[in-house]
Amino acid sequence: MSSSQPIFRLWTSCFLQATLDYLEGQVHLITSFANSTKIVIGVACLLKLRKNNFSTVEARTRHYDWEVNYEYKSPDCYKKLAITINGRTPGPTILAQQGDTIIVKLQNNLLTENVAIHWHGIRQIGTPWSDGTGGFTQCPIQPGEKLIYKFVVDRAGTYTYHGHYGMQREAGLYGTIIVLLPNGVSEPFSYDYDRNIILNDWYHKSSDEQATGLSSIPFVFVGEPQSLLINGKGKYNCSLLTTPGACNATNPQCSPHVLTVVPGKTYRLRIGSLTALSALSFEIEGHDMTVVEADGSYVEPFVVRNLYIYSGETYSVLVKANQDPSRNYWITINVVSRKPATPTGLAIFNYYPNHPQKPPPTVPTTGPLWNDTTSRLAQSIALKARQGFIDTPPLTSDRAIVLLNTQNKIDGYYKWALNNLSLTFPTTPYLIALKENLTDAFDQNPPPDGYDFASYDIYRVAKNVNATSSNRIYRLRFNSTVDIILQNANTMTVNNSETHPWHLHGHEFWVLGYGMGKYNMSSDGKKYNLVNPIMKNTVPLHPYGWTALRFQANNPGVWAFHCHVESHFYMGMAVVFEEGIEKVGNLPSSIMGCGETKSYNRPRP
Ligand SMILES: O=C1O[C@H]([C@@H](O)CO)C(O)=C1O
């Protein structure tokens, strides 16, 4: 059969898609592939093309056996050691249904590094020890050891997981979690097919080398990434290297991701970003996207041509394949908010029956102006909870904590701080220290609820850039309503303020408002959206702006709240909340074994 015949091409593109899905661990296709004849592939593919067979999944316990390794990979054609899960980066997709219990047996096969994996957006109600935050909720898993994460996925939506020890996320340790609705419940929007897209930025230096630079004098920043990845694939220009041996432009690992669509059909794209640094603009050339979900919450639908997405966020958008079907289109991601020095990330939106690799006849867009803060702020503000699914916030809060975000120095080292405190975590993780009453494990004094509002000029480099290291934590009254006002400021560079995506573990919060400039304590609170605020777990703080959040401190445990830029978190841009520690059940001894719990009886694999 000639490869130009449509049915062959359907099989080819379908095979590519199905192989990807197979690789993503979607078990229902594995069986189809066991007898890999063309007929079976065709049937499996046609079924696959008809609809992802998600609705038949039943609530249950899902077991995953994962091995974490360093392996040579070439996601952008450049060969480097990446952290893989079962040989893959991005790792396997966890596909589950609301109410399922997830059990991940994580074996750390790294020879010299610890590991922890965070389940980003999963609230861990009743299982705070499974949050996977090294130094906060567990001792990291040591080389050669194993830890079992067990938790319930209690809310349908699109989530992610990633390394939360050191800077391992950017070494490739990340993936997607999809939680489907219970049987018989349907989404408030319709679509024909469901597809995942995970975005990342990619560096050629190892995360270890980057971490060393961040904690050195003189300071060496990670800099702009070499590539942008769509579903783990990007393209570095190998000819830029003086020693090109490590870079092979024809390596199939760096052929662009292909998303095959059938003309006239509507696709739900579940898009997540786990970039180390970059804020992104996502576009599908010539196609409108209707935003319908953000971080697991339904969005009052709105149409965009480019979707701004910050590290740690997820969105679902609906896209109809309604353009000229005789060609393919570019899917592009571009850096925004920092002066781009990274080429556009590319994938192919392939209209069946065109050849999946057929390049679109156009030049890919370079995206919106990188410094157009106004348009990014406008899209943040446009995000509202969907009518019929609004969970209104309490009208007042019990406590407001204002966090001034600054770049600082401590003993000559570059840091980030909140209200002048830069977080260093204790050797005994907070959750264990609090539960076991190890009061000498960290400074018991509370950090400040605000900063010197009257005299601090957010538009200038601070007069005194020195901050203090601290491991103090915010202790919240259980069941109280807490407001957080994130206040941005100038960095240590004149006329510079950066975007910080803030992520809260263990909760979702209402996004009450955004503004530019200094938050006004007497008037800005009156402008909060208390009618239909979206609930999210990650939210941007725009340059020189403020972002106001409200959440209920109703999940017993210890929870990190931090900037999702990996280097900024590494440099101390985080705070810790404790609530209801007395309600936390007995901690599994498997999370212990470091700091003051070094001698605890910890099971070894
Ligand atoms: O933390 C950072 O450091 C650099 C720069 O401010 C100093 O090199 C930068 O852009 C960051 O985000």
Helices and strands, with pairings:
Layout: H1 6-23, H2 27-34, H3 38-50, E1 61-73, E2 80-85, E3 94-97, E4 101-108, E5 117-120, E6 146-152, E7 157-163, E8 174-180, E9 193-202, H4 207-214, E10 227-230, E11 258-261, E12 266-273, E13 279-284, E14 289-294, E15 297-304, E16 306-309, E17 314-320, E18 329-336, E19 345-351, H5 373-382, E20 399-410, E21 413-418, E22 421-423, H6 430-435, E23 468-470, E24 474-476, E25 481-487, E26 500-504, E27 509-516, E28 535-536, E29 538-541, E30 545-552, E31 557-563, H7 566-570, E32 574-579
Parallel strand pairs: 1-4, 3-8, 9-12, 11-19, 20-25, 22-23, 24-32
Antiparallel strand pairs: 1-2, 4-6, 5-7, 7-8, 9-10, 12-17, 13-16, 13-18, 14-15, 14-17, 18-19, 20-21, 25-30, 26-29, 26-31, 27-28, 27-30, 31-32
Helix pairs in contact: 1-3
The protein binds ascorbic acid.
Subcellular location: Secreted
Family: Belongs to the multicopper oxidase family.
GO molecular function, one term: L-ascorbate oxidase activity
